[in-house]
């Protein structure tokens, strides 16, 4: 099933805000698995900001990765493999296995260890299907509807 079709029925929310946050750095897909690029969005937010689930799902990871707190939410019924959203650097508020709804507080933004990733404090928000990174804005802006030809109808 196409991502746009799956997302049209979901009620979705920005991970920080309202209002919608300033985007400090946009998604820039890498050419390969180890190539340079930006595998998510950087959203301006101050340390201590509450981070919300963007879509209905289940927390499947909450812990440190490379010295930063990371939270992963798997979105069931979004295809095989299912979509996953990631949030970092955060302090998780919910344990693995917790079902979440859009807008539910799931973490607080941690102070960055360095300013190397963002020019100021930010939430890095990612979207993946398997090992493939996708643009997280697709969750909030699924794109235009497309009409397909109908065949076999008198």
Describe the SSE topology.
Blueprint: H1 3-8, E1 23-25, E2 41-44, E3 50-52, E4 57-65, E5 68-75, E6 83-88, E7 90-92, E8 99-100, E9 105-109, E10 122-129, E11 132-134, H2 137-140
Antiparallel strand pairs: 1-2, 2-10, 3-9, 4-5, 4-8, 5-6, 6-10, 7-9, 10-11
Plain-language structure description:
With 154 residues, this protein is mainly beta. The chain has a single domain, classed as Glucose Permease (Domain IIA) (Distorted Sandwich), CATH 2.70.70. Helices cover 6% and strands 35% of the residues. The protein contains 2 helices and 11 strands; from the N terminus they run αβββββββββββα. The strands form 2 sheets. Strands 1, 2, 4, 5, 6, 8, 10 and 11 form an 8-stranded antiparallel beta sheet that branches. Strands 3-9-7 form a 3-stranded antiparallel beta sheet, with no helix packed on it. It starts with a helix and ends in a 14-residue tail after the last helix.
- Described by the principal axes of the CA atoms, the overall outline is globular
Largest beta sheet, briefly? Answer: 8 strands, antiparallel
Assigned CATH class:
Mainly Beta
Oligomer: single chain
> Fraction of residues in helices?
under 10%
Helix/strand/pairing category? mainly beta
Assign the CATH superfamily: Glucose Permease (Domain IIA)
Evaluate the radius of gyration: 16 Å
H-E string: HEEEEEEEEEEEH
Amount of beta strand:
35-45%
**Uncertain spans, ≥5 residues at pLDDT below 50?**
4-9
């Amino acid at each position: 099933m196409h991502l746009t079709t799956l997302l049209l029925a979901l009620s979705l929310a920005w991970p920080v805000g309202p209002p919608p946050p300033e985007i400090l750095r946009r998604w820039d897909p890498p050419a390969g698995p180890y190539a340079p690029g930006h595998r998510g969005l950087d959203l301006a937010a101050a340390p201590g900001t509450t981070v919300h689930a963007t879509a209905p799902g289940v927390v499947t990871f909450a812990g440190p990765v490379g010295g930063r707190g990371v939270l992963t939410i798997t979105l069931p019924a979004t295809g095989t493999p299912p979509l996953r959203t990631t949030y970092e650097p955060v302090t998780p508020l919910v344990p693995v296995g917790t079902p979440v709804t859009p807008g539910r507080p799931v973490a607080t933004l941690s102070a960055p260890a360095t300013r190397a990733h963002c020019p100021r404090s930010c939430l890095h928000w990612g979207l993946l299907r398997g090992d493939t990174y996708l643009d997280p804005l697709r969750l909030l802006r699924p794109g235009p509807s497309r009409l397909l030809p109908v065949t076999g109808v008198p």
